[in-house]
Design a protein that fits this description.
- The complex is a heterodimer.
- By secondary structure, chain A is of the alpha/beta class.
- Chain A is 24% helix and 31% strand.
- Chain A has six helices and 13 strands.
- In chain A, strand 4 (71-78), helix 3 and strand 5 form a beta-alpha-beta unit.
- In chain A, helix 4 packs across helix 5.
- By secondary structure, chain B is an alpha/beta fold.
- The chains are: A alpha/beta, B alpha/beta.
- At the A-B interface, helix 5, strand 7, strand 8, strand 9 and strand 12 of A face helix 3, strand 3, strand 4, strand 5 and strand 8 of B.
């Protein structure tokens, strides 16, 4: 990790997920028959907070370069699935590298495991100065990954970040509280979780930028769980898991699905 | 089964301390000592303490679940439920223990009424741990956003920032509260204080007037507890109408201006 003012590496963690707002209500009710919702027709999107993280990663790189810093910007994602256009868009707008970690398991509802995997990669990288994530992402929306990242990387977390600013030649982060915004000077290595940011949408690349990367392939790596014993036991469900729906404001139990997960 | 319920002192609530500020050695060490000393099966903490919960989870090596909005004890089983897939689905599951649960306020209160298990309370006293702030800027004072009986919610369908501002003025004029959907906030039409939904505020007013919102589940999670939902949208097939008590298919600005004109007339009389 860089703490000497040499090249700074910014790693932005983002998730590509299905756009659940596009799923027809009847598809969710299909779970009543024990059938998974048919959602192949919905588009793949970057989580809204993660999109803000990607855009603000670019803005932070800009600020650091204006201050004469050498910066490498890395986008990191886990199990992106079929999302070639999104990957190419991210590289076309100015990211130096994109790393896709591929695992066989589904980590949608496993924030601890997700953070373990991401931190495992981050620890292997040199000169990492900042890690930026979105506040939360579907389908779990737990918001726990940034906090677990902080635990595993043993670095402080600043959550609900609104923007990065250059204030009197100091790189600062603006944090949102309930009733105020607080501007703080950035730490040498910090984790920043983006909340309701001022710049929320990832910029759109020009046609020329897109053409430059039309044959681009991201770095793909298998998921490697760290060897160290973190002492974490992942959630084991050994009882029936019921999936219920909200219908007209009332809970209605349609079905019971047995789920087994391994520790 | 032993349940440890961690409660925040008034000082935490009063000083608007950020979640991660609770993870200081001063706060965590006595708490960890207590947990190690007595064998606790389930630890519960409110949403304000999510970071502390995750720190405990990492330190103790036990799993943590967040966003619990219902918690039931049935015999030796702990059943929890929480939203998933942007509030389209609610999952209910049994949990093994030991476990740490980050619970929403409604589930937090429920624990105090259970008499089939021991509930210990441990109050966290903490101070803000950061003293390196460069400067602080107060947000704009918008009094009583969600405290009124009637809340007006602005959706992206109102069309523009100018229209949104006009609705803000209308709400202020008649003393209504004001909320907004995510697209309205991210486009900068109103501040993020007004955000409603799973990543914003959850409200339960008497009347909720929704203007120009499509009715996505993530948004509905924020207003679903309203007594009456009245929606206005130009799209008669909008999902919002399936979840509203009353609906009007018309232009939102026409509705607002018409209502304003009518109320002005009746007050002149």
């Amino acid at each position: 990790m860089d703490e000497t003012g040499k090249m700074k590496k910014i790693i932005v963690c983002f998730k590509i997920t299905d756009d659940f707002d596009e799923v027809q209500p009847k598809e969710w009710k299909g779970l009543a028959s024990g059938v998974r919702p048919e959602i192949d027709y919905v588009r793949r999107v970057i989580g809204c907070f993660d999109e803000a993280a990607l855009e603000n990663g670019l803005l932070l790189k800009q600020i650091l370069q204006e201050n004469g810093q050498d910066v490498q910007l890395v986008a990191l994602t886990l199990n992106p699935g079929y999302s070639e256009s999104i990957i190419k868009r991210v590289i076309a707008v100015g990211y130096d590298r994109i790393v896709c970690l591929e695992g066989k398991d589904n980590y949608d509802f496993a924030p601890q495991k997700t953070a373990q995997i991401l931190s495992g990669f981050i620890k292997q990288e040199e000169c990492v100065s900042y890690v930026i994530t979105g506040k939360q992402c579907a389908p779990g929306n737990s918001g726990m990954v940034p906090f677990y990242l902080s635990e595993y990387l043993r670095r402080p977390l600043i959550s609900d970040v609104v923007e990065f600013v250059n204030f009197k030649d100091r790189i600062c982060v603006v944090e949102e509280y309930v009733d105020r915004f607080v501007t703080k000077e950035m730490l040498s290595f910090g984790i920043f979780s983006m909340g309701n940011t001022k710049k929320s949408f990832l910029r759109i690349p020009t046609l020329r930028e897109k053409m430059r990367y039309r044959t681009f392939e991201p770095e793909c790596r298998g998921v490697e769980l760290p060897n160290e014993d973190t002492g974490m036991r992942f959630f084991a469900v050994h009882q029936e898991r019921k999936i219920q729906f909200i219908e007209d404001g009332q809970f209605t139990e349609f079905c019971t699905e047995l789920v087994r997960q391994e520790k | 089964m032993k349940i440890l319920q961690i409660q925040a002192s008034e000082k935490v609530n009063r000083e608007n301390i950020k979640k991660q500020d609770l993870v200081t050695e001063k706060v965590m060490r006595p708490l960890l000592n207590t947990i190690h000393k007595d064998s606790i099966d389930v630890i519960t903490i409110g949403e304000w303490g999510q970071s502390a919960a995750i720190h405990l989870s990492a330190e103790l090596g036990i799993p943590c679940l967040s966003g619990i909005d219902e918690l039931r004890l049935t015999g030796n089983e702990v059943m929890v439920s929480y939203d998933a897939y942007q509030a389209n689905v609610k999952i209910e599951r049994g949990v093994t223990w030991p476990v740490i649960l980050v619970v929403k306020p409604e589930a937090e209160d429920a624990l105090l009424h259970l008499d089939i298990c021991e509930v210990e309370e441990y109050r966290i006293y903490t101070e803000p741990c950061r003293d390196t702030d460069v400067f602080t800027e107060k947000k704009e004072e918008v009094s009583g956003d969600f405290e009124q009986d009637t809340i007006i919610v602005i959706g992206h369908g109102v069309g523009s920032k100018a229209n949104a501002q006009e609705i803000c003025a209308f709400a202020k004029k008649y003393g209504f509260g004001l909320g907004a959907t995510r697209p309205v906030v991210t486009d900068g039409w109103v501040t993020s204080r007004h955000l409603l939904g799973i990543s914003g505020s959850v409200i339960a007013p008497k009347v909720c007037i929704v203007l120009g919102a499509s009715g996505s589940q993530a948004f509905m999670a924020g207003i679903g507890k309203s007594e009456i939902i009245f929606s206005v949208n130009t799209d008669g097939d909008a999902m919002i109408f399936e979840k509203s008590d009353y609906g009007l298919v018309m232009d939102c600005m026409q509705f607002v201006r018409g209502l304003d004109a009518e109320w002005r007339e009746s007050s002149d009389e």
